[in-house]
Amino acid sequence: MLLVRQVVVNLNEVEEIRPFLYKLPNCFGPYEELFQKLGSHKTPLCSDYSSVLAEIKQQYKEEPLPYNTLLCVQKALENIIKLVDKEKEPFQNVAQVFIPDRSNVLVPSKSLTVSNNNEIEKRLEGKIDMHFFIGFKELKIDCVRDPALPFEKWPKLLQPDILTTEIFEEISTDNVTEEDCVVAQRIECFLCSAPVVEGIVRLVKHQFKCDGSSFHNSIENTIMQRLTSVKVTKVSGLKTYLKYKGQKIEGTELNASCFIKSVINKQTEDELNYKGYELCFQKESGEQTLTDLINDKQGLLTLVDLCTESRLGKRMTIYLSQILQLLENSSEISRKLDNLQIDAYDLPASWNVPIFPPPGTYVEKKFHAFLEQSISPFKMYEYMYVALEVEDSGDLTDPVYMYADIWKENKRAHVLDITYDVNVGRKNELITVSIYRLYRFKPKEQEIVQDLVKYDIERIGSIPIDKNFLHVRQMLKDAWKLDEAGQKGVLHRLWMQWHPDRNTSHREYAGRVFNYINEIVMKLENNEIIDDEISNDTGRMPPDMSRSTFRLSSEAIYRRGCTLAAHFYDNKEDYNRSTRTGNFAHHRAEKAIVQHIGEAKRWHRQAVHDYKAAISNISTGADDLSFNWVCYKCHKAAEKALKAAWFAKNANKARLRDHSLANIANGLNDGLLLTKATSLGRITGDYSCMQYPDAALGRQQIPSEMFDCEKAEKAVEITKCILDTTAELID
């Protein structure tokens, strides 16, 4: 027998579910109003299909549904999904809706949980009794993409639980330990740097413009404050666990990759405390570390989102991801955003100043007196603030240093065997250098303690002198296993470290160690035993070094030490006052004039060899069509000679990546060089045109056919003039 409520006046074939819900037959058309008065609906409602489900439940009770009946359930649910948005108040007068569980049994929707996270469900398996909805995918309801969304539109009393709103993932920090990690330090410094902060502020400001909102200085201040206080830490022991109804679910622990925790940064009594963030990550440091940290759900994008208070839209977040990839090239961020047509925005001038210049910048001579001479492994926090001795200093010439960043320590059994992978500003390239070529800058203090320099990063004023005798003896013994340049480098540092004028409060103490160094040097030269017993007379008198091959070096370093010590004491107060401003602000080194005559001579020497190779090719050029190689070698010789001139004039402005002769010559303030460089450039063209057929667009010729004897001879003539002129500038 068919009930009136099982009939709908206007129902199509898709909406009809026989034998539970029928369309009113056409023959009963004249009686539509009567059917509606008796309880039929004019159009189908969610309640009609909930009645279908209730009827099926009544038939099968707690039994699994057969396949054909399950198809009716699928059809009923699919129609509910389509109708729920159209009804103002769906499921009127419906106390409960029955939907299938994973056993194909119809149960009240309120008693089920909808799984919308497979990973969480797997972690829960066997740990907690949870009754799951069968799933739209299993019912082959293809119109649903989000398994939870359809139920969110149901009345609260009928909604099933959603897995991710019932189960929470919490971070366990009980057994977390911090680890030293140079990648973490670099990412932290990167996020706090002026280019990144300015770039993020630009994106937020542009987002406000797109939204038609006003951007205020208070927003800028908040973003700057939070970004510059960000901490990034590599940890171990970071785990997550699942929580249900406030209780930890045992057995659900899992290693976590990232976690962001809020911290309160305390200010002075006159300032308000403000919220900051720390990103903890637990990943192996490698090439993919940055990319993984950017994309992790608790990674860098989320960290910046918190710092900007979720002000970036989808498009700006994509741009943010792109600039976060520029860890090793932050200077390109501004240009990148310009190309994306993001409005320019400058941070306050007083803030937008780095403390240290980029790696590869040469250190001004005035800082040489403030380089610590002790040799000991670097701590992680010191990695980004070191100076590299770029060439062996001669007895009569001052050493040359450049700013560098340490990336990795290559540990060895002995201190002098330790090497470091160092960034000196070469794109995508690190160099490996020995520990004795790397220097710390003396920390800036409010008050200078005129004590001995550090020994193994400790103050040694209270260290017994015999311990320091043993220390330098062992270091010299290890140094003698190095090559000649290594021996010389270690010796220079030991002499400078123990120079009496550099240790004025302990002049006698330092003088004895200085004398002892020379005693050991002479014994090592003569293959004598150096493990003599140390007595109260050790180092009291300077040894006679007249026959030592190191006599001149020792005397030269002593004189240099006197000069540097005088400079140190004359300028120590100014040095300590200077950070972002002042005469000893490191960031000014980029604009400072630093001559590097040794490097200039090396470049010029190679230029001469390239020139000679060009000459040797002229005689065979006609036979093997190699005049292009003559011109190419002339171009490279002239390029190196011009760069040599820059090293002699100001190494910080040497354009090592520029190959245009005219561009390189411009600024040397030598009219002849500029004229000759321009003339040679007209002959050779772009340096690639002399090598690659595709570099000469629009021509049928290949490089070997584009250059003749006349061009080659003219190139040789001009190159000779450039080499002679630059040689005079260098000398």
How far the N terminus sits from the C terminus, by CA atoms, comes to 114 Å
Helix content: 40-55%
- The Cα radius of gyration reads 39 Å
The tally of domains stands at: 4
Backbone shape: elongated
Low-confidence stretches: 267-272, 446-459
Supply the helix-strand structural class: alpha+beta
Mean pLDDT: 87
What's the arrangement of strands in the largest beta sheet?
Answer: 15-20-16-17-18-19
Number of helices: 23
**Strand coverage percent:** 5-15%
Record field, number of beta strands: 20
* Main pleated sheet: 6 strands, antiparallel
Overview of the structural elements:
By secondary structure, the protein is an alpha+beta fold. The chain folds into four domains: 45-112 and 125-157, no CATH class; 177-339, no CATH class; 365-575, no CATH class; 597-730, Four Helix Bundle (Hemerythrin (Met), subunit A) (Up-down Bundle). The strands form six sheets. Strands 15-20-16-17-18-19 form a six-stranded antiparallel β-sheet, with no helix packed on it. Strands 7, 10, 11 and 12 form a four-stranded antiparallel β-sheet that branches. A hairpin with a 5-residue loop joins strand 3 and strand 4 (106-108). The longest helix is centred in the last third of the chain and has 28 residues, at 597-624. The radius of gyration is 39 Å and the shape is elongated.
